[in-house]
Amino acid sequence: MAVIAPSGPVDPDRLAAGTALLRGMGLDVALGKHVLDQVGLDGGRPARSDWYRLAGTDADRAADLTDAWCDPSVRAVFCARGGYGATRLLDHLDWTALAAATGPEPKILHGSSDVTALHAAFGARLGVTTSFGPMVASQIIASPDPAEDGAQALAGLRSALFGSGTIEVPGTSVIRAGRAEGPLTGGTLALLTALLGTPHAPPPAAGKIVFLEDVTEEPYRIDRMLTQLLQSGWLDGAAGVALGSFHDCGDPAEALAVLAARLAPLGVPVLAGLPAGHGPRQLTLELGAPAVLDTGARHLLGGTG
């Protein structure tokens, strides 16, 4: 597997710890050429704040991703971390080369958060399913506590990499009851809204189960982004909605009330509290794969791959 950094700069110690853990699973891990690079948003000297830095220039980060995906010896491409910058890569990728390298048994693209931009583009342009879950240099992978939720995240990641059949992701709160089936789509709410109106926007959610999550977004910002998805028509015809963690998003009760007020009128099953996203419990989901949302059983069933 190859580890790349498509977004923000990577902490070397966390990267080393995360790659050691993956090697402990029996994986042969190679690092992208630019995985530890750092530049500013203007491509020059990096700024002091992490949010004003990227893990290399757009061209270099795109080259690492393209090289990994097009290398026949690489079976999976894992993103080291999120942050900011993945949307900037989309105009730099050689989609013809990426499509040519996508065989009948395509590689795994794994990541979350900012990597939602890559999930959406790879799903739409290459027709592959992608893996949404904890990243190599994230705290939950690089410093897992076996007594805490890190162990559950690692078990979910192992299942996604090596398992077969289906995985069950439990929810905690029913916003609107019902059962739905369809391909799983979505990701981090802020990234989905950022892609609307661009050539890289994810296909409409009609007939699909929509997974949404986010972090450090106040309830009014969640309301604004949901309003944008609704007014754009992107949610029209969605089969159901599965809500992951909305971690550090202000008052949890207020955030849940906003989600319910905006999504219940869709008239489809809505299940909240799935342990996926930015929270301390990060199970792995396969975007693009068939899924079943059942609020009676309070779970999302999806394929592994």
From TrEMBL:
Domain LD-carboxypeptidase N-terminal: 2-132
Keyword Metal-binding: no
Name by which UniProt lists this protein: LD-carboxypeptidase
Taxonomic source organism: Actinomadura gamaensis
Hydrolase listed as a keyword: yes
Family to which this protein belongs: Belongs to the peptidase S66 family.
Alphabetical UniProt keywords: Carboxypeptidase, Hydrolase, Protease, Serine protease
Pfam family, one: Peptidase_S66C
TM spans (from-to): none
Residue intervals of the LD-carboxypeptidase C-terminal domain: 181-292
Domain of life: Bacteria
